[in-house]
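Message: Just now I want nothing more than another pair of eyes on a protein record. I am handing you a single protein, as its sequence and its fold in token form. As I understand it, each token names a local backbone shape. Take your time, and here it is.
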Amino acid sequence: MIFYLHGFRSSPDSLKARQLKAALEDRGLEDRWWCEPLPLSPLEAIQLIESELQKSSSRPLLVGSSLGGYYATYLSERHGAPAILVNPAARAFDALAPWVGPHRNLYTGVEFELTQQHIEELRTLWVPHLEHPERFWLMVETGDEVLDAREAMGRYQGSRQTIIEGGDHSFQHFTDLIDDIIGVELGTSATPWPKI
């Protein structure tokens, strides 16, 4: 079961989410998809995801983009699930601290305010040391204009890493890797992963 965790100011209508969902539907695998709007509060977001993880009858595969990658890291270490991280916010509490204030969701148009309380909640989800880096597959584009790809590459040392020169925060090469992501879900990936 793929649990897709979207990023800050994003939603299930993001391009990557729609592309991955469509690819699963094309293969008749729509029952292996979960992606819901995540609450603004990081702790509420984690609570929602964990409640859905408990309902899953098959091994969950976390796919997190940007802030969703930060959530996926916490959940992977807590629940032992493999996680694919797409241009993740390695230290989300630092990355989002300058963004405290009013915002608008890029897809829904809903206005909201990021508060210092949200930043503190992100800090409580920080995993200072990855006990199982082998559970992660990091995907980054070095041209990410929002997050420093080098920070993620250092954070996830020992993980499988796909590093693509250029690109941007949207991760332009996502469609090139969809078959591989689905292969991980189905256990048919040409590259054995995760090694657990």
Observations:
- The mean pLDDT is 94.
- The beta strands are 2-5, 33-34, 61-65, 83-86, 101-104, 111-114, 136-141, 160-164.
- The chain has one domain: 2-186.
